[in-house]
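Please, structure for the following, as tokens.
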Amino acid sequence: MKNGKDAAIISIQEQNMIGRRLSEARNRMGLTLQQLSDRLALQGIEIGRAGISRWECGDRQPNASQFLGVCRVLGIENIGAFFGLEPLQPELNEQGMKKLREYKEDLIASGRYAPQHKSENIRYISMPVSMLPASAGTGAFLDEGCFEMVEVPENSVPHGAEFGVRISGDSMEPVYHDGEIIWIKPCEMLRPGQVGLFMYDGNGYVKEYDEQMPAAEEAETYLGSDQTLRMQPVLKSFNRAYAPIRVSPDAAFSIAGRVLN
């Protein structure tokens, strides 16, 4: 039999209370999805417009850290009211509300889910981030004029990173998520298995780099001056719903950098 805490959480998920209440709170503050995403980023929580939309639609649930960050950004102090438990579920008695409060306190006390506060203990730095996502359909995302300076926690930027690019879409899930900023160290070569930022046929991609023997009909194109057969680059997605991209020898291709996070 489920205890009071489990029953409350199951009911919250089934009725999409988090999504509905999040949408209501965001709209009351007059924030767009992008504005909420930007404010969460200042709390060290990287989630794009599409990710927040999925929360509101009930397709996904924020984890505990994300949820507490949202509450802080939206000024929500009464967690029970946010869930809708007090006005919508009067059958949840004081004991049930106590269990819900204990659940929140347990999460914070663990040290893993406490919201980050912008204080002197967290040093923020400004980093260049492309205003166009990696798969925006254009190679312009690396042009000098397409960068904006974004304030981020210093400890969230890996050593050696020189700029950031936002992920677009779900092709690299579950490792990288839509709207997440990835940090890039410029380079021109990668080893198979490394994740990189690529320019291919005028488009920008974030993929895992691999190599394979070229098909027979393309083998001649991959012969070096010493008649040694070179390997054909292949760009792979972590999400197996997406087929690997075999780099055509007739299209422009370059490696812009290695993903560090």
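Residues 4-109 form a domain with the 434 Repressor (Amino-terminal Domain) fold (CATH 1.10.260.40). The chain is about 30% helix and 20% strand.
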